[in-house]
Design a protein that fits this description.
Blueprint lengths: L6 H8 L10 E6 L8 E7 L2 E6 L16 H5 L14 E4 L2 E4 L2 H19 L4 E4 L6 H15 L4 E2 L7 H11 L8 H6 L3 E5 L3 H4 L1 H14 L2 E5 L12 E3 L6 H14 L5 H7 E2 L1 H8 L4 H8 L3 H13 L3 E5 L1 H4 L4 H14 L10 E3 L6 H6 L16 H11 L11 H9 L5 E5 L3 H4 L3 H9 L3 E6 L11 E4 L8 E4 L4 E5 L12 H11 L9 H10 L9 H4 L4 E2 L23 E2 L18 E6 L15 H6 L4 E4 L1 H7 L6 E6 L2 E9 L7 E5 L28 E7 L1
Parallel strand pairs: 6-7, 6-14, 8-9, 8-12, 9-10, 11-20, 12-13, 14-15, 15-16, 21-25, 22-24
Antiparallel strand pairs: 1-2, 2-3, 4-5, 4-16, 17-18, 18-19, 21-26, 22-25, 23-24, 23-26
Helix pairs in contact: 3-21, 4-21, 4-22, 5-15, 9-12, 9-13, 9-15, 12-13, 18-20
């Protein structure tokens, strides 16, 4: 399915000697990697996973219909890794020793309660996880709020799509993907892809976009600082300077207004704030925007015409758009573009924020955020808080909590004294890792719950072994808001336990009783408090699942949002001026460095780097360098170079390529030993959502 995927090489390394798929038991579940929500079958033999096969039944595999990317097909053997955590660990004199569950949980509860009693609840913080289930994220935020007594709960959405929640929420009233993935395969007459290398980061979605172009003749616009794979078949590729998204989008809207291509009826009936937007767009002629972005003015005109004249045009974006100090403005700008042309609320249209992790949408929906309970009910809202207080039997804080980035700064400053990190690895994922390490070292107590001894777990005082997606029941929520089942296929290794059991035990030992018999029981409690999930049950989620909002048990789900009106009533235009990134190249650091993901790896690499086939195709980090830059510095392909910023330096392998422009560098953030986030800036943050500017910082490059 995937163009260029090394199927033979991978299958020969992983599946050899495992027998024929027909001889194995098969458990249907949902993929644990990106947010697409692909269905797959785990093949089980002698209580172990031995392979993955496809289920092509559209009822049971509605999103991918059997198609799988390289990670979904071959990235399963981490489950069987000998490096899995199998027992609780307690650190004594700088070394871990095995412990019983009773000893580890009692000690963790004692430590957390002591900090809470001495410094107050807000001296504690919890990081939840986009990798675990809805049920477990629900319990994580309940634990933070009811057991610890604080709203200091956040997760990695802060580092990827927090600005989507803020930006789409401000424009439309609901901060989620508006349409379905299937729209991109058949209903979109034009797809505008900006800031997403879709064929690598969401390969099944990239395949559907490509299929729509090749088979149905749909138009394709690609805007990205690199010449990504989809650019090869695009009608227009706008290779803009990193961090100039608002100027590019404003230039397109200037053309649409000046050439009368806007949807005047939609603007008048369904939006507000257009006059202010129109005024600010006047100066953003294609020539003016070209001077900022580096995109030829004629390309901006052509892209604007193609998008505006299409019967139905969809926008897809990911972290190339969001991970900026102007991330919220960038998201508001794509919302402006969609509304100005009436491309919202119909099949084949909308704003499609492609989520990078399997359950980052669900973690947000479950309230693993510092300002909201489930379904984005605000913690500062008295009625919402009273509702949860009644359900949970505990007074709750009405003060907004700290974000991931704020928590790290607060730990460094001595304000946060204790942390519970659940399924996250900030020692690789967060900006300015040296600062993260210094902050964690200052804590009085660090508790980590994970499936491997990650770089963050190695800093912990106590480590608790949880279970992976193949060893649990529950639900994930995909990028298109589809809630789907995951099913237990194998037993957990050693004494590893269900994550919800661990959280319940910890809360109970802290004096807040939690007791559940199953993930389904947790789901039932959650949906009673969550209007958008209220109509869902495990029985109803069998098969294709359901898209929220699904308010009642006879409701079919909602694949397309904002059909008749926006969630906020009228869609709101935002008049936005272009702002430069926080850190620009200078004489000492003359290059722009951007970071991102690889086809073969996922997030901090704790799973994919323990998957033999995937890791063998990319065993170490690489730096993409333009051939002219490489020639000027005397750098040859595959040799190692030193990459530096004001935060530090790393050594990694050079990859010479002309998919990016001169003076622009790109590297991957999956590799702890050459961690891109040793270089990124923890202080260059979006002022609304607090997302770090991972996509632009000033760098220097040296031949070793």
């Amino acid at each position: 399915m995937y163009y260029g995927m090394p199927v033979g090489a991978l299958s020969s390394k992983i599946a050899a000697g495992q027998g024929k798929p027909a001889q194995n038991d098969k458990i249907l579940t949902t993929c644990t990697y990106c947010g697409t929500g692909c269905t797959l079958e785990l093949n089980i033999k002698n209580e172990k996973i031995v392979g993955v096969t496809s289920n092509r039944d559209a009822e049971w595999s509605p999103v991918n219909k059997g198609a799988l990317c390289v990670k979904g097909r071959f990235g399963w053997d981490f489950v069987n890794s000998p490096e899995r955590l199998t027992t609780p660990l307690i650190k004594e004199n700088g070394e871990f020793r095995p412990a019983s569950w009773d000893e580890a949980l009692d000690l963790a509860a004692k430590k957390l309660n002591a900090i809470k009693e001495k410094y107050g609840p807000d001296s504690l913080a919890t990081f939840a996880s986009a990798r675990v289930s809805n049920e477990e994220n629900y319990l994580a935020q309940k634990f933070a709020r009811a057991a610890l007594g604080t709203n200091n709960i956040d997760h990695c959405a802060r580092l990827c799509h927090s600005v989507s929640v803020a930006g789409i929420g401000a424009a439309f009233g609901s901060g989620a993907m508006t349409n379905s993935i299937e729209d991109l395969a058949q209903d979109a007459a034009c797809t505008f892809v900006i800031g997403t290398n879709t064929t690598e980061n969401h390969p099944v979605i990239g395949y559907k976009i490509r299929q729509n172009v090749v088979k149905n003749g749909a138009k394709l616009i690609v805007a990205d600082p690199r010449r990504v794979e989809l650019a090869e078949i695009a009608d227009v590729h706008m290779q803009f300077r990193p961090g100039t998204d608002v100027a590019l989008l404003n230039g397109m809207m200037n053309v649409i207004i000046s050439e009368g291509l806007l949807d005047q009826e939609f603007i008048e009936k369904r939006t507000e704030g257009f006059a202010e937007l129109k005024e600010i767009l006047e100066k953003y002629t294609p020539e003016y925007s070209a001077g900022i972005t580096g995109v030829p003015a004629e390309d901006i005109r052509q892209a604007a015409r193609i998008y505006a004249e299409a019967e139905a045009a969809a926008i897809c974006y990911s972290m190339g758009l969001t991970q900026h100090s102007t991330g919220t403005d960038n998201v508001k700008s794509v919302c402006n573009l969609a509304m100005i042309t009436g491309n919202v609320g119909r099949p084949g249209t909308g704003i499609n924020a492609l989520r990078g992790q399997n359950n980052v949408q669900g973690a947000c929906d479950m309230g693993a955020l510092p300002v909201v309970f489930t379904a984005y009910q605000k913690v500062i809202d008295d009625a919402a808080r009273e509702k949860f207080e009644k359900a949970w039997g505990r007074p709750l804080s009405g003060t907004n909590g700290l974000t991931v980035t704020q928590t790290i700064h607060a730990a460094y400053d001595g304000v946060i004294k204790g942390m519970f990190v659940f399924g996250e690895n900030p020692m690789v994922s967060d900006p300015d890792i040296q600062h993260v390490e210094d902050a964690l070292d200052k804590l009085d107590f660090l508790l980590v719950q994970d499936i491997f001894l990650t770089e963050t777990a190695m800093k912990a005082d106590i480590v608790l072994p949880g279970v992976c997606f193949a060893e649990k029941d529950g639900t994930f929520t995909s990028t298109e808001r589809r809630v789907q089942r995951i099913r237990k296929a194998v037993s957990a290794p050693g004494e590893a336990r269900d994550d919800w059991w661990i959280i319940s035990q910890l809360a109970s030992r802290m004096g807040y009783p939690m007791s559940y018999d199953s993930a389904e029981e947790i789901f039932e409690e959650m949906r009673a408090l969550t209007p958008s999930y209220a109509g869902m049950t495990y029985a109803r989620l069998e098969g294709p699942g359901l898209t929220w909002p699904c308010p009642t048990e006879d409701h079919p789900g909602t694949p397309i949002l904002h059909k008749e009106q926006f969630t906020r009533g009228l869609g709101l235009f935002h008049a936005l001026d272009f702002k430069e990134p926080v850190e620009l190249p200078d004489e000492e650091y003359p290059f722009i460095l951007s970071t991102g993901r690889s086809l073969y790896h996922y997030h901090t690499g704790s799973m994919t780097r323990r998957s033999s086939g995937l890791n063998s195709h990319m065993p170490e980090n690489r730096l993409q360098i333009n051939s002219r830059t490489a020639a000027e510095l005397g750098i040859n392909g595959n040799e190692h170079v030193r990459l530096s910023t004001r935060r530090g330096s790393i050594i990694l392998q050079a990859e010479i390529t002309d998919i990016l422009k001169d003076k622009v560098l790109f590297t991957y953030f999956h590799f702890a030993e050459a961690a891109a986030n040793r270089l990124t800036d923890s202080h260059a943050l979006d002022p609304v959502a607090g997302i770090p500017e991972f996509k632009v910082c000033a760098a220097n490059l040296e031949k070793i």
